[in-house]
Design goal:
alpha+beta, elongated
Length: 145
Amino acid sequence: MTAHAHPVEDVAVAVEQEHLVGDDYGWFGQGSLDRYAPGRAAAVMAAVRGVARRCTAYTDTLFDGSRTHNTVSVTRADARADDSLVLRVASTFSGDTDPFITETGFVREGDVIIMGQKMVARDPKSGVKTVLSPAVAAYRAATAG
């Protein structure tokens, strides 16, 4: 996201939920907040959405020579903000039908993009959408005043 439109400010944190009882695999990911020059955040959101819609499937070759087939979808995140989306990548290894899921949620509030990413989970019980609205609320509370 920052390769082509560098933010003015950037803050990132790693997050993790340990394995719970039952079929919940736990998860790890990251969160970030990027502040852009006026008007650039909307352009970044449009670029992310556009690339995701153009590149809906691809294959990766990993360092050990194994391959993954990846499918991409993009939906609205339904967070109360100026713009939002969830990018979901399902990665299936050769000979395996149970994909690993990576979800990245983006919420734009003015010139700020809040990003939350949930990585490497099979059959996620709850997605990244669950953390986006609280993240927006925390950002608004921190900047109110």
